[in-house]
Write a structure and sequence with these properties.
The chain is an alpha+beta fold and about 210 residues long. It folds into 2 domains: about 130 residues, no CATH class; about 30 residues. The protein has 5 helices and 6 strands. Strands 1, 2, 3, 4, 5 and 6 form a 6-stranded antiparallel β-sheet that branches. Strand 5 and strand 6 form a beta hairpin.
C-alpha cells in the first residue's frame, strides 16, 4: 500500500520536482489503497514570535535573558506542532539553532540575519500501536535585525515564523477486508497442512504393545 506512494515520490525526486505539501498530498490521495482521513487534518500557522529591545547596553545578552529567550522559543514551537513525539525529535536540533538567532544581538548597526531551518516533510510509518500513515510538513524561519536609533543606542528585533501541516491516511476498508480474507485462506491452508502432517506421523508411528 505505502510503497505505491513512496515509489511515485521517488520518481518525482529523480525528475527534479520539488516536493511541496500539495505534491505530497496529491501523491497520497491518488494512492488507490489509502484513504485520506480529512477530519484529522492540521494546518497550523502561529502569529510570529517577535521580540524587540531598545538599550544602551547589551542587557539582552545576559544569562537570564538568554534562558528566558530560549524557553520562549521552545514553548512557541511546541505550541505550533503539538505533542507528537515523532515530530519533536525531528526538530530538536533546529530549535537550538533558532534560539541562537532569536537571542542574537547585532554588533553592527543596520544589520539583519534570516535563516530557514526547517522546510521538510516527515513521513510516519504505521505500526501496531498506530496503524495509520502520517505526513507532516514543517517550516521554521528565524530572523534577527539591528537598527541604529540613536547615536549610542540601537534597536534589536528578533523573531521566528512557523507553519505546521499534518495529513493522516489509513488503508481503505476494502483493502483491509481483502487482506483479512487472504489471511483466513492462509490460516486454513496452514491448518490443513498441520492436520495432514499429524495424521502422517500418527500412521507411521509404531504401535505400543
Amino acid at each position: 500500500m505505502l510503497w505505491v506512494s513512496l515509489k511515485e515520490l521517488t520518481r518525482l525526486i529523480d525528475g527534479g520536482q520539488e516536493l511541496t505539501l500539495d505534491t505530497i498530498e496529491s501523491t497520497f490521495n491518488n494512492n488507490p489503497f489509502l484513504e485520506h482521513v480529512r477530519d484529522k487534518d492540521v494546518d497550523s500557522k502561529r502569529d510570529p514570535l517577535i521580540k524587540c529591545n531598545d538599550s544602551f547596553t547589551k542587557l539582552w545578552d545576559s544569562d537570564i535573558s538568554s534562558k528566558q529567550s530560549d524557553k520562549l522559543v521552545s514553548d512557541w514551537v511546541y505550541r505550533l506542532i503539538g505533542n507528537d513525539e515523532a515530530v519533536r525529535r525531528v526538530i530538536e536540533i533546529s530549535i537550538e539553532e533558532i534560539q541562537k538567532i532569536v537571542s542574537h544581538t547585532g554588533s553592527d548597526a543596520n544589520s539583519s540575519l534570516e535563516k530557514t531551518f526547517l522546510d521538510v516533510g516527515v513521513l510516519r510509518f504505521p505500526d501496531i500501536a498506530n496503524p495509520y500513515i502520517r505526513v507532516y510538513h514543517i517550516q521554521l524561519t528565524a530572523w534577527a535585525e539591528c537598527r541604529k536609533v540613536y547615536i549610542y543606542a540601537r534597536r534589536n528585533s528578533n523573531g521566528v515564523d512557523g507553519e505546521y501541516h499534518m495529513r493522516e491516511y489509513k488503508p481503505r476498508e476494502k483493502v483491509i477486508e481483502g487482506l483479512a480474507k487472504d489471511l483466513q485462506m492462509i490460516a486454513i491452508s496452514e491448518g490443513e497442512k498441520l492436520i495432514q502432517e499429524l495424521v502422517r506421523i500418527s500412521d507411521t508411528a509404531s504401535p505400543v504393545n
